[in-house]
Design a protein that fits this description.
The protein is α+β, with helices and mostly antiparallel strands. The chain has 24 helices and 13 strands. Helices cover about 45% and strands about 5% of the residues. Strands 7-13-11-12 form a 4-stranded mixed sheet. A 3-stranded antiparallel sheet has the order 9-8-10.
Length: about 625
Amino acid sequence: MTNVRFLPVSLTLLLAWACSSCSAPSMTQRTARPESQPETFQLASSPTEHASLSGSTSSASSEPPVVIDLTPALLPANAAVDTALTTAARRVIGWWKTPQDPLRFSEILDNNRVLSGSQSLGQPRSGSVLNSAELAFTGPHYSIIERHRARNTRFGTDQMIELIHYSAARVDEQFPGSILRVGNIGYKRGGKIPWSVTHNSGRDADLAFYVKRIDDGAHIPSPDLLHIDESGIAISHRDLQFDVERNWILVKALLTHPEIHTQWLFISEPLKQMLLAHALELGEDPHLIERASQILHQPTESLPHDDHLHLRITCSKRDRLEGCLDPGPFWPWIDWHDQDLFARSLELMRALDAPQPETRLAALNFLEKIRSPYAPEVALVRGIHDADPRVRQKALEVARAIPSWSATAIRAAQQFIAASGTTLDEQKIAYEILRRSSDALVSDFIFTRLHDPATSVDEQILAARALSHIMEPELVPRIIERFAHHDAPVRQELAQVLHRITNHAPPAAKNIDWTRNDEAALASGIDFWNEWWQQNRNLDRQQWLINGFVSHGLEPYENMLSLASADHLIQLLRKQPDHIVYNANRTLQALTRRWAPLEETNGNKLHRHWAPWWNKNRSRLLHNAVSVR
């Protein structure tokens, strides 16, 4: 389920701008898509019942969409929205208060500002730690495993060290004498360690499982990180077994600390199921069990974690505001400090009124460092109109680096593209922002630009390319209609989008070459696509996907495009045309919920991205898919 995280930023920014000397474009409510998560779709029991992969549906009985030139209506409609929203903002100023950051932007940007305590910076795979806290070799309820002590990997954030003490003590309260054994946390200043690809930012720790003797059930401090088999027996110490009672109390403590939030507990699937079954037997709170079922997870990109519990905690509020980054997922029960990020973004927005361009650049750099979800709005509405070209360039880079799905950012990028003083290089970056949004809001603007005779061929190419990831069936007749009005380079871009949406390309025998300016050849190509549309317009896009894959070798069977088809889809990545590679990659992403680069068009590279990962995780993912049914 889509999780709405962000504040209604558009209206709030309107209020902030209404109270300052700047003006704002129209804004609508901002909602968040799950970060670091691919699109998902539901599979029905037969091909004719499939929902569209594009996220929209196409009715079997509907008439084909009518292609209308929206240019005459678009400008007055936008003006009306601007007026309505600005009026609404003025009416609520009297009772609505903009959130405030406790620091002024001059303090935030002060390079000499000193923070107390530890500070986690960056992500777990590429971060660092300042003023880290140290976990002593031994404590009242824990000890560091002997072979790990010489590694000097006992350092983490204040919150991590506190959570280890806290959770070990909670286990000891219920089972006196219990000793939690600790492996790697991280180096004193963070950074990479040889034993893990994470543990860089002080927010990851390896905790040995509690084990007990099989014969008498006595607790034994784990001698090391012991691999546990599916039955719960230690592989190298057959006299020891996974202590499900103590390990559940440990998990419960990690999930219920009042201030420190656990994001992941990596563990093998069989051990996870043992813990959840035990929690059910105890009659634990169903909400706690549901959280545990999501946070306990066997990773798909690394070893199964059958020898330890890998703990990852989230950024504290103070660290998040200074550049600590959570890669997701963003669980709905955790405070991700969005309101605080919003207040900081508003304060840094005020720095864009500073007379010194260096201050304005520093504000944009800070927004980029903390990857504020509101940075694209600030950059696109304020920064790109700066008098200093360095500030304008940085604002575009910030907006490109931090994807945004808000109507505010999309609208601001569109206005910037259409402004008379915008250079082609600046337009290129702005169109990239639109392309990365994959938002249907982009398409009307694109066709408006394509309709405009004043739009240069170079810009038309950028505009057509911005449709690359908008897989809406309604675009098909609009694209077909545009073929007759553009030069060959633009036709080629539009044809690629058309091939991707339909998962279909004309057979070689048709000899459709959009680079030729021969009127007969052009008419032949348009006739082909009009005929295809008439034959296929009543099918939804998922059926188009199936038809395209079948035509390139995918075996037809019931419940196609399920995880069971992953092997075939991965094979389709090699030596196939662009549209088949693109849609196979996109479908694999949707089926597995694993990130994949949609901008990558090299099928061999994508095959190397998917094949090893799928071979390692195939049996478990297919088993889980069957279990869910």
